[in-house]
Amino acid sequence: MWVLVFTCVLLAMSANSHAQQPTTVPSTPEPESSPSDQTSSSRKKQSANPEKFAIQAVGQTKKVGELALVKARDWESGWLTGVFVETGQTMTPLTGAQRGELYLSQTLITPGAYMKRMFAAGVDQARGVPHQWDDGWGGYAERYASHQGQFMAANSLAALGNAALGYEPRYDRCQCSGFWPRTKHAIVRNFVTFNETETERRPQIGLYAGAFGGGLISTAWKPHPRDAWAEGGKGVLGQAAYGTLLNFFIEFAGEINRKIGSKRPAPTY
Asked: Are 248 and 184 in contact (CB under 8 A)?
């Protein structure tokens, strides 16, 4: 009986102690925000500050425009001027395959070559020569086709002549510095080139023979009256003037492009 009473007392004390302890409620973790909720929150912040968002958008658009402009400037060497040898590059004789690639690039592939013929045809259109061709789009097409045919004939003959003589068909930028020394180099290189040694200079026989031959061939489609020798002479004069201008542009185009943000080096063989 005493055991039963003692057991009841212990149970009562235990129950009383549990009743006096504070009850704790487990905390419920906050739900993590989903990516869609974060995007929605970001959009709310942007809409809350439209001026800041507009400034950021303008900045991104400006960056994209600058990158596109720089990329366009980087096309300068291959797109307009064709292949040339950069300052500091060692010139080595071209193989037959390289001469073929260079010929195709300068004659058929480089877009700048077509643009030059378009410009020349526009000048003739404004002058009205030949006067037998009309002043409309038909006349312009005839003038453009004439210039393009003469150019291709001249380039083909020049390429054959340079290959036979082993002459260098590329322009090399001056190893010197200063405006006048480089200008002199650009002018002189339109009349002399290098032989197979790439060190000894020779007259541009192939280049000017090709220019003369292109003028002769152009009389095959030009209207009467026509003088083959006169057309050949015009081709030579055109090469003297245009070739010097092109060399001058190549010589200083790198500096111009670097001033306006171009980074890509010119292609070389």
From this structure: no
